[in-house]
């Protein structure tokens, strides 16, 4: 599905603030060496990850989302009551229902706006951004809070070295607002359910995650096959996005990729002819935070001054489903 409406309508959806939150507890590769048969060298070489953050036992995905959202609202200099749409992308919702978006709305102390979750695993934030952009473009919403938040540590088998070294917890958020200035240029969303078995969790998620652990409902992944499809697919979406906008590779200022593996990120950067200095990399210190990884990376690059107003950003993600997507935008 391709949305390329921004050029036909005056209402653009523009990011006016970003925020992130990472739980305090840090799990290093050295810590993992004590838990499973692995080494810092293997993890670093194969994935680029050095450490990741892990939510406290009492912290839920919504708690992380609240912190990231408050940071984004502060950066946007608006209050929660200015928000008329909340979309939360998460694979690890607090409960089956109410949605994490409704729980977040309550935590932010407001009510009445539309609020719902989106589930597209690691591509969740790109899906959420795309949906929020459509609400704004059509005039159905003026100011949207779009969040990616995950507590993947709850669904990790800490005895499975092939997956437990990869993931981390965190949240990222953006405030998207109607604007006459160019913002989101186009978004590209895809899925292929034929790949559902390569990356999956076999049961539902809830606040009572210890029950899930007893049931053995952990992330299972056939890593090298996922890797191959991810590289191939992300290369294709680079092409698709550039062609849809009649844009040259040289016009992209920053790649803000999903942070699953440094080797996947490097392959996408190569496809875009972008040197790694123009790629925002957080996988080394966050691991793979699924739906949270793109907004977290964006927030970090905005706050440290790398991403500046007017820059052209290429956001992309690939994840379970499989799902994949991209968003091209002017920051
Ligand atoms: O975000 C959603 C999408 N997810 C992704 O895009 C992740 C895609 N996949 C990957 O990033 C990579 O495939 C992994 C990082 C998961 C694995 O890297 P790989 O280079 O594909 O390794 P592999 O799975 O082919 O395993 C190579 C070897 C195996 O040993 P043998 O069979 O060759 O003796 C594994 O058992 O490495 C072994 N291995 C480990 N060794 C030390 C697997 N995990 C570990 C580990 N420590 N943690």
From TrEMBL:
InterPro entries (alphabetical): ACP_syn_III_C, ACP_syn_III_N, FabH, Thiolase-like
Residue ranges constituting the Beta-ketoacyl-[acyl-carrier-protein] synthase III N-terminal domain according to the UniProt record: 116-193
Gene3D superfamilies: 3.40.47.10
Reactions catalysed: malonyl-[ACP] + acetyl-CoA + H(+) = 3-oxobutanoyl-[ACP] + CO2 + CoA
Pathway(s) per entry: Lipid metabolism; fatty acid biosynthesis
This enzyme's EC code(s): 2.3.1.180
Keywords: Acyltransferase, Cytoplasm, Fatty acid biosynthesis, Fatty acid metabolism, Lipid biosynthesis, Lipid metabolism, Multifunctional enzyme, Transferase
Superkingdom to which the source organism belongs: Bacteria
Domain Beta-ketoacyl-[acyl-carrier-protein] synthase III C-terminal, chain residue ranges per copy: 244-331
GO biological processes: fatty acid biosynthetic process
Compartment(s) where it occurs, according to its Swiss-Prot or TrEMBL record: Cytoplasm
GO cellular component: cytoplasm
Root EC class: transferase
Stretches for region ACP-binding: 259-263
Principal location class: cytoplasm
GO MF annotations in UniProt: 3-oxoacyl-[acyl-carrier-protein] synthase activity; beta-ketoacyl-acyl-carrier-protein synthase III activity
Free-text comment on this protein's domains from its UniProt entry: The last Arg residue of the ACP-binding site is essential for the weak association between ACP/AcpP and FabH.
PANTHER family: 3-OXOACYL-[ACYL-CARRIER-PROTEIN] SYNTHASE (PTHR43091), BETA-KETOACYL-[ACYL-CARRIER-PROTEIN] SYNTHASE III, CHLOROPLASTIC (PTHR43091:SF1)
Homology family: Belongs to the thiolase-like superfamily. FabH family.
The protein's assembly and partners: Homodimer.
Described function: Catalyzes the condensation reaction of fatty acid synthesis by the addition to an acyl acceptor of two carbons from malonyl-ACP. Catalyzes the first condensation reaction which initiates fatty acid synthesis and may therefore play a role in governing the total rate of fatty acid production. Possesses both acetoacetyl-ACP synthase and acetyl transacylase activities. Its substrate specificity determines the biosynthesis of branched-chain and/or straight-chain of fatty acids.
Protein name, entry field: Beta-ketoacyl-[acyl-carrier-protein] synthase III
Originating species: Candidatus Nitrosacidococcus tergens
């Amino acid at each position: 599905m391709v949305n390329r409406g921004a050029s036909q309508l005056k209402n653009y959806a523009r990011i006016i603030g970003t925020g992130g939150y990472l739980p305090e507890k840090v799990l290093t590769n050295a810590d993992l060496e004590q838990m499973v048969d692995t080494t810092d060298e293997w993890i670093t070489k194969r994935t680029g990850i050095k450490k990741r953050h892990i939510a406290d036992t009492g912290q839920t995905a919504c708690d992380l989302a609240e912190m990231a959202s408050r940071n984004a609202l502060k950066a946007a200099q608006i209050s929660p009551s200015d928000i008329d749409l909340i979309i939360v992308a998460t694979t690890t919702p607090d409960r089956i229902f109410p949605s994490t978006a409704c729980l977040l709305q309550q935590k932010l102390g407001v009510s009445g706006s539309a609020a719902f979750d989106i589930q597209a695993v690691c591509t969740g934030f790109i899906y959420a951004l795309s949906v929020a952009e459509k609400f704004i473009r059509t005039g159905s919403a003026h100011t949207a809070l779009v969040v990616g938040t995950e507590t993947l540590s709850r669904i990790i088998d800490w005895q499975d070295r092939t997956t437990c070294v990869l993931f981390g917890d965190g949240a990222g958020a953006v405030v998207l607002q109607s604007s006459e200035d160019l913002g989101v240029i186009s978004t590209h969303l895809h899925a292929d359910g034929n790949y559902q078995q390569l990356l999956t969790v076999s049961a539902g998620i809830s606040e009572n995650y210890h029950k899930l652990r007893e049931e053995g409902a952990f992330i299972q992944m056939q890593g090298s096959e996922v890797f191959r499809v991810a590289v191939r697919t992300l290369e294709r979406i680079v092409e698709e996005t550039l062609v849809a906008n009649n844009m040259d590779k040289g016009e992209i200022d920053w790649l803000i990729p999903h942070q699953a593996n440094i080797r996947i990120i490097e392959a996408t950067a190569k496809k875009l002819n972008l040197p790694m200095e123009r790629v925002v990399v957080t996988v080394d210190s966050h691991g793979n935070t699924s739906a949270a990884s793109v907004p977290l990376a964006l927030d970090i690059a905005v706050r440290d001054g790398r991403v500046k107003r007017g820059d052209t950003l290429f956001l992309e993600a690939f994840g379970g489903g499989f799902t994949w997507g991209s968003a091209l935008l002017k920051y």
